[in-house]
Amino acid sequence: MAQPPPLAQPDTPTDRTESFSDGVFAVAITLLVLDLSVHNVPSGGLAQALGHKWPHYVTFAVSFLTIGIIWSNHHSMFERIVRVDRTLVLLNLVLLMTVTFIPFPTGLLASYLRSGADEHVAAAVYAGSLLLMSIAFIATNTYAARRELLGEWITPEIARQQLLRASFGLFVYSAAVGLAFVDTVTSLVLCAVSAVYYALPARV
Amino acid sequence: MAQPPPLAQPDTPTDRTESFSDGVFAVAITLLVLDLSVHNVPSGGLAQALGHKWPHYVTFAVSFLTIGIIWSNHHSMFERIVRVDRTLVLLNLVLLMTVTFIPFPTGLLASYLRSGADEHVAAAVYAGSLLLMSIAFIATNTYAARRELLGEWITPEIARQQLLRASFGLFVYSAAVGLAFVDTVTSLVLCAVSAVYYALPARV
Amino acid sequence: MAQPPPLAQPDTPTDRTESFSDGVFAVAITLLVLDLSVHNVPSGGLAQALGHKWPHYVTFAVSFLTIGIIWSNHHSMFERIVRVDRTLVLLNLVLLMTVTFIPFPTGLLASYLRSGADEHVAAAVYAGSLLLMSIAFIATNTYAARRELLGEWITPEIARQQLLRASFGLFVYSAAVGLAFVDTVTSLVLCAVSAVYYALPARV
Amino acid sequence: MAQPPPLAQPDTPTDRTESFSDGVFAVAITLLVLDLSVHNVPSGGLAQALGHKWPHYVTFAVSFLTIGIIWSNHHSMFERIVRVDRTLVLLNLVLLMTVTFIPFPTGLLASYLRSGADEHVAAAVYAGSLLLMSIAFIATNTYAARRELLGEWITPEIARQQLLRASFGLFVYSAAVGLAFVDTVTSLVLCAVSAVYYALPARV
């Protein structure tokens, strides 16, 4: 029990950072359902009103799976990370902020899909949010590798492969932001492709 | 500490999947209360306004207990599962998505009970949501058994019994969806019967 | 690893029940803030609009501390409980349902305090919700003692004292429900007295 | 297993207090996104409507990082605390209450920034909320040190340094409350300075 005083808390175990992150992911993913509601339905018109809301169900499912897959990759990243320092906690906070933000552009997209000009703005904001998340993910990943916060079994080769894998989203989401102004559907398909890519197991 | 590099993370322990799932269940079950509110009450009319909201209290209680019982069965399932792989994480995500969705049809049902034609639509959406949850539950269960992710003490006989038990909901919720268009109350009684069945301890 | 198959899962450890309960308490206690908001404020009138909302801040603080103290007592109860069975999980679910419900009567009370006749209804619903919580708490406590789910260091004398302590709320909240129709302030003072009583450490 | 009966639960481990606190922080930080929404947008005007909402994005990011940094310091505090008693649980509850409250003044600030006189009121409420949090943090810290609830490796010198560090916010937030009525931007800059100070690692 009588340990020497830790100087400036350089290393702390990752438990509470992971449990806090799990909590944030769990709340953010569940808040998506709050966007589903029907109002001012004329009597007998519920089935039709629900039918008109199809973009809300599609974006609910897509964003739920996207946040879930980000959680799964966050989980994998923290299996490789064995120590945290203050900077990593801050980078992880920024990453969580970008994840927490996702319900907002999801709601925009659901409301403005099939609405003409505004649909392009909503799709760009959606893809842009995923791009910000991707940048925060890479920053956290890179910092952990540079500061040797990873487990000893992570060879430089594995770390490099993980970074490559993380960079895939950076390019795809950048393209999706640009394409949002040209064709909304193509932009959203790119976002979905990225989710499928990250849902597949890493080869290393 | 110096372990060999894990190749493609084939097996990971179930801790963080369970803690994330617990978080999602906890948020989804608590969001049900947001549907309870009274607006535009004429002065002195609060008691009457609350009385008129009885379908909201009934559906709050039924959905709370239903989600709670699903949580309890999810808990039991993950006592049998000792390893997770990427596919199981994805199947579990889809299962959580169907659970997270439940506050939405609960709100619909509360709003449209005793409303004529729309009541049938709301009851069908409610039972349909539970049917989707049931399908996702069976898929997760079956995959875990097929891929030998269960503990060694789970004999094929126990696994088969568990699957039978899980299939009960599939039939009852399918019937409830169909009956929703005939008689709403019978449909909801079937949903409640299923909840009671799953609240009872498994015989195996 | 090769354990004998557990027959009908009679006993399970309390970990996941506690973590799920902690999650539900954490969400319920945080949802209270959603009731704080100001709308339609004339320009320059924010300070006055905030001032008029004082019942919302008072009920926010009272309900936050009340739910926090219930959590603390729930925590103590689960330190005495070392095993859970299906019935205890169900009783705990009902207890969590009554806790989750508290933000609703809190909102009612905040909206209808100083509103004449409706104030009595709101106070009765508030005290009634705490009474339901108290009944669910005692039921969980009693069941655990009867079924010998408590740790071996809990003597019958300690269990009896705990039950007496839990019964205090039953009487106070019953009185608060009745008095709500006579005098709102006295009713709320009784609810606060009960919270203070449970915030004090148990003598046994 | 057969331990002697604990008399009046004087000391309990900090696990469940930390997990409950983590849950409250996770929900409070995620609720901030609910304040982001756009309504009544004329067709084709989404980009402009989003642009007008810039104070909401700024306050979302600032409050998210502020709550995240409070969490990180709460985490550090509970690494020094090795025992909890009833009073510490209550002080921690009050601290969590002030954290949970933050989304409300954040929403006020976002709505009233650039609104003339009301902007000063909103900034004062925002800084005042952080001041209350700071007082609750110092109270918890001081109580833990006085009652010797800290780990043995915390020397009086370290405890004193931690208290000095915690007191920094008290002075900065007090100044921010006063300055809110003079100049809103200076007040908010002070709040940000305090967040940056606490984001830096402690020297002891």
Report the largest inter-chain contact: A-B, 46 and 44 residues
Mean pLDDT across all amino acids of chain A: 86
* Assembly state of the chains shown: homotetramer
Order of helices and strands of chain A: HHHHHHHH
Helix percentage of chain A: over 70%
Q: How many helix segments of chain A?
A: 8
Estimated structural class of chain A: mainly alpha
Question: How many beta-strand elements of chain A?
Answer: 0
Q: Rounded to an integer, what's the Rg of chain A over CA atoms?
A: 20 Å
Question: Could you name the ranges of chain A where pLDDT drops below 50 across 5 or more consecutive residues?
Answer: 1-11
Outline of the structure:
With 204 residues, chain A is mostly helical. Chain A is built from eight helices and no strands. Chain A is elongated and about 65 Å long.
Question: What are the main properties of this structure?
Answer:
204 residues; homotetramer; elongated; 73% helix; 8 helices; mainly alpha
Could you outline the blueprint of secondary structure elements for this entry?
Four copies of one chain form a homotetramer.
Chain A: H1 15-31, H2 46-52, H3 54-80, H4 86-101, H5 103-112, H6 117-146, H7 156-180, H8 184-199
Helix pairs in contact in A: 1-3, 1-4, 3-5, 3-8, 4-6, 5-6, 6-7, 6-8, 7-8
